């Protein structure tokens, strides 16, 4: 069974001087301003598609890892993931790289096994799969 989530954007004006608002329709958590400047230069209190992708990737990867660890008999005490998404306009606008950084507390888990599980989660999370055309998706994972 498929579950559908919705978001919408309303935009006014041209790309460079215009602006818009993106709304999280399904959850109702809010409406957030978007502009080209916020996307390609300085955020200035506005969001961008890349920040939204970073949020989606960080949460998806973290959920996937919690499941991979559980299936391997390890319950994480804490997983903290940061996703950085690079938006490059130098040769036509594109997402050029994504860096996932994970700090984890998983009692009783050796680093070698932890790294294996973290990589499996990175490769198997649905957002990673959807973003497979990004030239570089890296993961730096550490146990605390």
Considering DSSP H and I runs of 4 or more, what fraction of the residues is helical? 25-40%
Spell out the CATH superfamily of the largest domain: K homology (KH) domain
From the spread of the alpha carbons, the general shape counts as elongated
Tally of helical segments: 4
Provide the CATH architecture of the largest domain: 2-Layer Sandwich
Mean of all residue-level pLDDT scores: 97
Strand order of the largest sheet: 1-2-3
User: What fraction strand?
Assistant: 25-35%
Write down the domain tally: 2
Oligomeric form: single chain
> How many strands?
6
From the helix content, strand content and strand pairing, which structural class follows?
alpha+beta
Description:
One of its GO terms (molecular function) is peroxidase activity. Pfam families: OsmC. One of its GO terms (biological process) is response to oxidative stress. This protein is an alpha+beta fold. It folds into two domains: 7-40, no CATH class; 49-143, 2-Layer Sandwich (GMP Synthetase, Chain A, domain 3). The chain contains four helices and six strands. It has helices at residues 36-40, 49-71, 111-124, 126-130; strands at residues 7-12, 19-24, 30-35, 78-88, 94-105, 137-143. The strands form two sheets. A three-stranded antiparallel β-sheet has the order 1-2-3. The longest helix is centred in the middle third of the chain and has 23 residues, at 49-71. The radius of gyration is 17 Å and the shape is elongated. The mean pLDDT is 97.
């Amino acid at each position: 069974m498929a579950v559908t989530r919705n978001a919408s954007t309303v935009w006014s004006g041209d790309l460079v001087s215009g602006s818009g608002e993106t709304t999280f329709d399904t959850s109702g958590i809010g409406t957030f301003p978007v502009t080209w400047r916020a996307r390609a230069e300085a955020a200035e209190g506005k969001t961008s598609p890349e920040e939204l992708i970073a949020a989606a990737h960080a949460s998806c990867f973290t959920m996937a890892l919690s499941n991979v660890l559980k299936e391997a008999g390890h319950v994480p005490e804490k997983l903290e993931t940061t996703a950085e998404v690079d938006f490059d306009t130098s040769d036509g606008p594109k997402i050029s790289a994504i860096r996932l950084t994970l700090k984890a507390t998983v009692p009783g888990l050796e680093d070698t096994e932890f790294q294996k599980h973290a990589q499996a989660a990175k490769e198997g999370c649905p957002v990673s799969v959807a973003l497979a055309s990004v030239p570089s998706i890296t993961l730096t994972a550490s146990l605390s």
